[in-house]
């Protein structure tokens, strides 16, 4: 507040009153000036002018801008790059005109480029991904297996058809024993056919199916001992492909085993099987006479007539020969898969 000293000097008698009035006015807030506080009888030049707020001494607070740490780092990098570029341009001011022009273009691109976020990647993850892609082999096309349609005499000698007839022993003849065995070559010619002696007491000859009677198995007849028959059959089928229907039962009564890849059983070949109506299994085998009638048009195992083992063996052989190419392709695929599994 400015005080006019000339008025105070001209009125020495009222100096104390003027000072009191000035002090009371100064202590009041600027926004609360009223007329009753002024002395109407002794007007003062101080009342002529209304005091104003003194805002020059106040400090203004700048607004605080909160930035993301990562964005702030990018801005710092951006500013440092710009300052570096300006320093380089100042140091190269004495160079030729072409270099200065390139530098100006660089500065322009740098200043106009927006700061980008830094994306961090895991080097180990990329390395493992590349390794997996490198080790991953491209799928190779399956090899086409060529099966010859015609066989040479040497290849035909590798095939033997087999069928056995059995009798029953034990209570109600529920256990089967070998009574007759027949083997044929690839051309359907019989190479071995004999009756076999049964050491146990036969309780059911199953004559209506097997055609075997008690007279056929008497001692001193044409029946050969079981061990002799077994050893001869083993020598014939060794390293040979055996064809038949229900070979599992035939091998069991013979007491022998044969490699699965040398076995062609028409009862186990899936295209020859049917869906199980009971649902216990996926597929069940068809009867040989049904397959012979449907696939070959042959009539075998007629009602009331005993089965002929040679006829049954030849029927199974003809079924195989008709579907040999497809069957052998399936067997080759299974053998290759088995080799891959055993290698692992």
**Average residue-wise pLDDT:** 76
Integer-rounded radius of gyration: 57 Å
Number of helices: 13
The succession of helices and strands, N to C, reads HHHHHHHEEEEHHEHEEEHHH
Distance between the termini: 104 Å
Number of strands: 8
For the biggest sheet, the summary is: 6 strands, mixed
Low-confidence stretches: 1-13, 31-42, 92-96, 116-121
Structural class: alpha/beta
Q: Name the beta content range.
A: 5-15%
Q: Give helix % range.
A: 40-55%
**What overall geometry do the principal axes of the alpha carbons give?**
elongated
Map the helices and strands.
Layout: H1 5-10, H2 15-27, H3 45-48, H4 69-91, H5 97-112, H6 123-135, H7 153-156, E1 159-169, E2 175-184, E3 190-195, E4 202-204, H8 207-210, H9 226-237, E5 241-244, H10 247-254, E6 263-265, E7 273-275, E8 283-285, H11 288-296, H12 309-322, H13 324-343
Parallel strand pairs: 1-5, 5-6
Antiparallel strand pairs: 1-2, 1-4, 2-3, 7-8
